[in-house]
Amino acid sequence: MSVQLALKITELYDLEHAGIAKDLLLPLTFPWEALPLIKDYILKVGPTLPKDLYEQRGENVWIAKSAKVAPTASITGPCIIGEEAEIRHCAFIRGNAIVGKGSVVGNSTELKNVILFEKVQVPHYNYVGDSVLGYLSHMGAGSITSNVKSDKKLVVVHAGENEIETGLKKFGAMLGDSVEVGCGSILNPGTVIGPDTNIYPLSSVRGVIPPHSIYKQRSEVAEKRED
């Protein structure tokens, strides 16, 4: 499979689990193309959500009636929180966030300009900015996305000898479905992790990590074995 094909939305995600974000992602090729569109999409879709399932709480904030939101959570719009999601104590949602059905945003976790598919878990001290997290993906305690390069230049996706210009100054990580990120890991700007991949704890990750693999360090990426 070519590098660019592996980075396509259709290779990274099952859009049947994208929930409200499905129609945003469908016409796009690469997931990071959605990042500049999240705000306007929420503002368009929010008012159309079924009133029997969602209620508006504050300016441009729509929350499913079945979601659990701690009174200590801070939520700034535009934002949509899906059905059966759980927003825990002291979660901080800074805006431009779509939180999928059944997802967990935990203690002291901060979200900004993100899409969480259904049943995503960012439960303990995570920072997730300018990122897309696929179905059943999980970030271990203290793992974060770094979304701006230290030199403040535009982010480039490095895939082996290939470089893909994104035109974005802010770009955290694209996690495919069922990705497991170990505790204390840092996902550097422009990281793309293929579906069903495990990242070892305390890893510093950059570039494209293939699907169905185990990442220990850049020079040590093993393919998962099927038992």
How many structural domains?
Answer: 1
How would you spell out the order of helices and strands?
HHHHEEEEEEEEEEEEEEEEEEEEEEEEE
Gap between N and C termini: 24 Å
Label the structural class: mainly beta
**Tell me about the biggest sheet?**
11 strands, mixed
What is the CATH superfamily?
Answer: Hexapeptide repeat proteins
Quick summary:
The protein is mainly β and 227 residues long. The chain is 9% helix and 37% strand.
Walk me through the structure.
The protein is mostly beta strands. It has a single domain, classed as Hexapeptide repeat proteins (UDP N-Acetylglucosamine Acyltransferase, domain 1), CATH 2.160.10.10. 9% of the residues lie in helices and 37% in strands. It contains four helices and 25 strands. The chain has helices at 3-6, 9-12, 22-25, 38-45; strands at 54-56, 61-64, 68-69, 74-75, 79-81, 86-87, 92-93, 97-99, 104-107, 110-116, 121-124, 127-133, 138-139, 144-145, 155-159, 162-168, 173-175, 180-181, 186-187, 191-193, 198-199, 204-205, 208-209, 213-217, 220-223. The strands form five sheets. Strands 1, 2, 4, 5, 7, 8, 10, 12, 17, 20 and 23 form an eleven-stranded mixed sheet that branches. Strands 13-18-21-24-25 form a five-stranded mixed sheet, with no helix packed on it. A four-stranded parallel sheet has the order 3-6-9-11, with no helix packed on it.
